[in-house]
Amino acid sequence: MKEMTKTIRDIARELARKYSTMTHEELDILQSVLVPMKFAKGEMILKEGETCKHIYYIDKGLVRQFYFKNGKQLTEHMAVEGNIVMCIESLFREEPTKLQMEALETTVIYALPKARLEEVAMHNVNIQILYRKILEESLIQSQVHADLVRFESAQDRYRKMCKQNQQVTLRAPLVYIASYLQMTPETLSRVRSSTLLD
Predict the structure, then answer these.
(1) Tell me: the pLDDT tens digits for 56-87?
(2) What residue ranges in the chain does DSSP mark as E strands?
């Protein structure tokens, strides 16, 4: 049990380093909020119709967020270690999600339950800052992806993804990368070949 506590402390420190500065007491509070979870490859973290109640911090693994449209799976987002994932609309409206989350590898996640996080943030400025910065990061990521598919050529979309999410491009199946970049797997293969020749 001791090792698990140490791990949670390490995660609390990582989050504090990334999003806010914290005293030992504040780290204790943040640590008390974190809930460790483990998912096997292919296991669903969140299914369609469930309500998202957590912000998830990925300690190890690869997570994909996707939805169904006209019977096809469309990839909305993929993330690896050190990143946050959530279904923001479901989280804040407290309504069932259309967005699903799947572990593409064996994945270890630390969940921040929204209700508990908001409760402690009310009494703690540094935890408020951490919460706000997490939300800012999530909104920026959504905007970056929207702009990527809206304004960039297929070639530039792939190049930018390689630059911004190198681990995702190395580890995620090509079919999901193609879907995320809103191109067919065939187009992605052509784009990858020409990028390698550059």
Answers:
(1) 999 999 999 999 999 899 999 999 999 999 99
(2) 35-39, 44-46, 54-60, 62-69, 72-80, 84-85, 100-103, 107-113
Does the pLDDT value for residue 5 go beyond 50?
Answer: no
Contacts 24+ apart (CB under 8 A), 15-18: 15/57, 15/130, 16/126, 16/130, 18/82
Domain covering 8-151 in this structure, CATH number = 2.60.120.10
Residue 171 is inside which H or E element, if any?
A: helix 166-171
Token readout for 148 is: 């990527």
How do the domains of the chain map onto residue ranges? 8-151, 152-197
What distance in Å separates the CA atoms of residue 176 and residue 174, rounded to the nearest whole number? 5
pTM (2 decimals)?
A: 0.91
10-48 residue pLDDT tens: 999 999 999 999 999 999 999 999 999 999 999 999 999
The distance from CA 62 to its chain's CA centroid, rounded to whole angstroms, is 9
